[in-house]
Amino acid sequence: MTWIETTSLTFTARHEDGDRSYAEDLLDRLEDLSLKLEDRFEVVPTGIDVVVHPSPIWLTAAHPFLPAVRWAAAPAGRRYLAGWPMATEVHVLGERAMEKRAAGEASYEALRGTAERLYTQLVLAANNESLPPPWTPFRFLNYLKWAWLIEGGAQHFARQVDYFRAAVIRRLREGRRPSFPPSRRDAIILGGTVFDLLEDYRGGGACELLIGRLRRDGPIANLEVAFDLPIREVEEMWRDYLRDLARPQPDATSLPSPEELLGPSRPEP
């Protein structure tokens, strides 16, 4: 495959010729996000490469463990694991592959924002040395323990939590009641709701506090400090927040489609 490079002030994209316009739009959105993140974090990495893969097969070849990570996620969230962050690179699917994977407008917007979420993970890692990437054994173990914080923080700071509403509704309708904080299985679906709730409750700066340090006594300590409440009260607030999120919105023009709620009839590659 012949790669083409498209550059912007801060990023470089490598892609096929057919993804040229997609890459240009992607870099514009990343530049906008980078400026916004500079207002909230001390360190915002530059010189990041974005690798746009034309199909899931190419993405899997670059990151063969990704299918296992996707399989381990709740069914409602598997489609959104459409890329992977490295220390100085973000790997994502191309436009046509994203369109095939999407299950509606909001689902497509969430998938389209994969590069922004993954770049935000790089920003979070640059400001907290305990978070991946890079994927050292220590940081990988932290990802397993703190996946809700890493995935949720990336969703929140990239302003994408609303795109996952249909996935949240589907998750609440199937399977067991979600744990709190969300399990690794539910991280990409429910992690962002914790951050949006915190911002609604405590205002600016609280989300940076939550993600700025991984406390030795675990996620519950992080949550109690950030919310300034006992964990029982935080959990009650969160479950109320999920119930409100799952209710039909009075100003919504349409409800999530059956495809958004139930997903494709066959497993995705």
What's the helix and strand layout?
Layout: E1 4-7, E2 11-15, H1 20-38, E3 48-53, H2 56-62, H3 66-72, E4 83-85, E5 89-93, H4 95-101, H5 105-112, H6 114-126, H7 137-157, H8 165-173, H9 187-202, H10 206-212, H11 219-227, H12 231-246, H13 258-262
Parallel strand pairs: 2-3, 3-5
Antiparallel strand pairs: 1-2, 4-5
Provide structural commentary.
This protein is of the alpha/beta class. It has helices at residues 20-38, 56-62, 66-72, 95-101, 105-112, 114-126, 137-157, 165-173, 187-202, 206-212, 219-227, 231-246, 258-262, and strands spanning 4-7, 11-15, 48-53, 83-85, 89-93. A five-stranded mixed sheet has the order 1-2-3-5-4. The radius of gyration is 18 Å and the shape is globular. The model is unreliable at 264-269 (pLDDT under 50).
Structural class: alpha/beta
Q: List the uncertain runs.
A: 264-269
Strand order of the largest sheet: 1-2-3-5-4
Overall CATH architecture:
Orthogonal Bundle
- How many DSSP E strands? 5
The description of the largest β-sheet is: 5 strands, mixed
What top-tier CATH class fits best? Mainly Alpha
Helix content: 40-55%
How many separate structural domains? 1
Brief synopsis:
With 269 residues, the chain is α/β, with parallel strands linked by helices. The chain is built from 13 helices and five strands.
